[in-house]
Amino acid sequence: MKVIIMKELLEANDRLAEENRSYFKENHVLCVNLMGSPGAGKTTLISAIADELQDIQIGVVEGDIASSIDADKLEQKGVHSSQINTCGECHLDANVIRQGAEEIAMKNGIVFVENVGNLICPAEFDLGETVRLLAASVPEGDDKPYKYVPMFSYADVVALTKCDLKEAVGFDTTYFTKGLRAISEAPIYEISLKKGQQREGIKELAAFLRKKYEEV
Amino acid sequence: MKVIIMKELLEANDRLAEENRSYFKENHVLCVNLMGSPGAGKTTLISAIADELQDIQIGVVEGDIASSIDADKLEQKGVHSSQINTCGECHLDANVIRQGAEEIAMKNGIVFVENVGNLICPAEFDLGETVRLLAASVPEGDDKPYKYVPMFSYADVVALTKCDLKEAVGFDTTYFTKGLRAISEAPIYEISLKKGQQREGIKELAAFLRKKYEEV
Lengths: 216, 216
Hints:
2 copies of one chain form a homodimer. The first copy, chain A, has a single domain, classed as 3-Layer(aba) Sandwich (Rossmann fold), CATH 3.40.50.300. Helices cover about 40% and strands about 20% of the residues of chain A. Chain A has helices spanning about 1-25, 40-50, 70-75, 95-105, 145, 150-155, 165-170, 175-180, 200-215; strands at about 30-35, 55-65, 80-85, 110-115, 130-135, 155-160, 190. In chain A, helix 2 (about 40-50) crosses helix 9 (about 200-215).
C-alpha cells in the first residue's frame, strides 16, 4: 500500500515538474537544483557563483526544515531569495518550488533551488530544474559515491567543495572519482572558497552554468 | 491521505519498537541508535568506542542505502556486524533492526545501530533503542542545531566529531552550544580521532555509555 501511494505522489510531482519546466523556459530562466548533505557548503557556493555572474540576474529559493539563516545570508548580499520552511519534510517538491519561483517572479536569469540538506530523499523529486548540481564536501569522505548511489547518479554536475581540507582529512580524489565514474559521467569541479585564501574552481563552475543559461 | 498512511506506518513502527525494547532488555543489551549526516564520522566513532570498552561485547547493525563499506571496516576490527542495505530508503525502522539484532544474536553487551547518513528522517523512527546518540561533525557547521531542530531535539547525547578541524573551518562552539541548549539538555562530548594525533573526548563518551549499559 505504501508503494502505491508513493507512486501516486511521485507521478503527481512529475506532472507539476513538467509544468515548472515550461514556466521556467517561458520566462527564460535556468533553474538549478542544488543538493547535498547538511554543511556541504551549498549557500556559500551560491554566493560565490553570484559573485562570478554579476551580469546575470540570480534568484534563490531556499529550502530548510527550520530557520531562515541561509536566505538571510543571501539577501544581505543582494540575492533575491524566497525561504521555504518544510516543517520537517526532508526534501522539496515541484509544488513548493512553483510557489517559491512565483514569489521571486524572475525573468531572464538563473534561479538556484537550495534543497534541504539531505543526500538521499531529494533525488526522488524532479522539481522541473534544468541542471542538477550536487555539492559534495571533502570532509564528508571519499567513499560517498559508493554509498549514496541514487544521489550521485542523479546529478548532472558535481561541485567537490572544501578542497582546502583534502590534506587535513586524508581525502583520496582518485578513489572518489572512480566511485563517481562507475555510475555517472557528470563533470567534477574542485572548489575551495576558504576565507582569506584564493578561490579555486568557482570561475570554471560559473562558466559551466553560464553556458547552460545561454542554451535556455 | 498521505498523513493518515504515514501515521499508520509510524504507529506500526512504534509497536515494533516497544517489542524490540523488551527483546534488548531480556538479553541485557544496551541498544544505541547512532545517527548523523553522511560523513559525520559514525563508523570511526563506533570503532573508537569499541577500543575503549574492550571488556564489553560490542555488536553493530549497519544501515546503508548501498554498499557494505562500513560493516567491512568494523568486521576487520573484530566487531560483530550485520549489514542492512535499505535499497534507497532514507532511514532504518524497528522491523529491520529486529532482523539485524537477531542475526548478530547478542546477549550482555552493547549493540550500536549505525543509521543511514541523514540528519532528518531517522528522527521519526523509534527503533527500540535506549540511547539516541547524534554524531555532528565540526565541518558541517555551527548552525546545524538551529536548522535541523527535530534531530537535535531527538538526541539524548551529542558527539561533536572532528574537533581537530575547528580552527580550519572557523567553528564557533559557543554558537553551536547555544543552539542546542535552546531545544535540548543533551550532554555534548567533543571528540577528535585524527590519525596520528592523541584521541580526545572518546574516553568520556565511552564512560557515559558504560554507565548506561550498567543500568540496563
